[in-house]
């Protein structure tokens, strides 16, 4: 069963990457046709925005956010960018 799941995920990744590579040259021209990025994965793509969930794990208090303007905690476990943020900048999304 795990082999089938790996094959399915790999196939989906190939299809998505092929679709993104055929974006009519929109990447980098300021005329991006892509309006959002959905990232699936583990903690490397999860900034930890869970302020609206019933959970013990929170990041809306110091020292989280100490590197942001004003030092205000935003609820993110990461003070830096996660891969989804970098991809959004590359695709020139808001």
Automatic annotation (TrEMBL):
Keyword set, alphabetical order: Signal
Entry-linked InterPro entries: GDSL_lipolytic_enzyme (IPR050592), SGNH_hydro_sf (IPR036514)
Position of the signal peptide: 1-18
Glycoprotein recorded as keyword: no
Protein name, per record: GDSL esterase/lipase
Originating species: Aegilops tauschii subsp. strangulata (Goatgrass)
